[in-house]
Amino acid sequence: MSHPGGIATDSIDEGSVDGLLRRGIAAATFDSSKTREDYIKTCDQLEVLQDEFMKTDLIMVATIAFGMGIDKGSIRNVVHFSVPQSLESYSQEIGRSGRDGDTSTCFFFIKARQPQRSHTVAKKASKLHHIDVDSAARLYGVERNEIIAKLSEWNAEGVLELKPSRVMNVYKLTTHPPQTTSEIEILAQAIYACGHCQWCLTHEPLRFETPPPIPFDQLAFDGILNMVSARDDPRLLAKLAFGISSPRITQMRLGRSPVFGSMENHEFIVLLRAFEQVCSVCE
């Protein structure tokens, strides 16, 4: 990667930046996951880094918030170290590259086994808010796509849950739609084939090598048993180890405990069987 570009991550890994610097590549980091007290400092840092990025060949390793408002035509690479939250988010993020019309390279790294956390939130009531994007754009003098991009960013970060509605496109068919499988395939290729992505170039799916089994972390397992005395619910203990929240975990104030998610790289069913064995002995 010898051209200016961005590396998008969910959280900053300083090791990736150090690796670039050791190779003599100018790189910097920006992490938007700051506390409320650091908000003003974070905004100042963002402005400085964005200015430097616009003027130089600096490579940024940053969370997705860094790219908001960036309009640099010579971005040649956009790399994701984690799978984007949605296709819409990915389209917006890679859309910052190649605006000068030259070819750019966009790719992301996928692991065969990525720790996945599921979160269950107990709420007494939900609050729904409506925003008219067109009216807001006119009222505040900003571009409509900027508002949509910011809402999509907040949705990806879990700040809000975005449910687009009242979207209607009216079309009139000038010819009969395709009926046969071959006709439909030709139309789909004409509409969706970009000619540049991996699928268009190879027509081969990604192939993953099955990773070796992860050794059971007995130390973390014992830590959970020492932290939680309850032996009546092995699924509760498995959720705690895997990092899945529940009303009871919230009630026990274990969501921020160091044992929460301490075994997230294990298979959930393996954890459940192990805790079931412990709980059955205590019955």
Automatic annotation (TrEMBL):
> GO: which molecular function terms?
3'-5' DNA helicase activity; four-way junction helicase activity
For the Helicase C-terminal domain, which residue ranges apply?
1-152
Instruction: Provide the GO biological process annotations.
Output: double-strand break repair via homologous recombination
Which Gene3D superfamilies has this protein been placed in?
P-loop containing nucleotide triphosphate hydrolases
**A Pfam family matched in the record:** Helicase_C
Q: Superkingdom, according to UniProt?
A: Eukaryota
Identify the EC number(s): 5.6.2.4
PROSITE patterns reported in the protein's UniProt record: HELICASE_CTER
GO cellular component terms, semicolon-separated: chromosome; cytoplasm; nucleus
Q: Which reaction does it catalyse?
A: Couples ATP hydrolysis with the unwinding of duplex DNA by translocating in the 3'-5' direction
Family, according to the entry, reads as follows:
Belongs to the helicase family. RecQ subfamily.
The protein's name: DNA 3'-5' helicase
The organism is Monilinia fructigena
Q: What is the lineage of its organism?
A: Eukaryota, Fungi, Dikarya, Ascomycota, Pezizomycotina
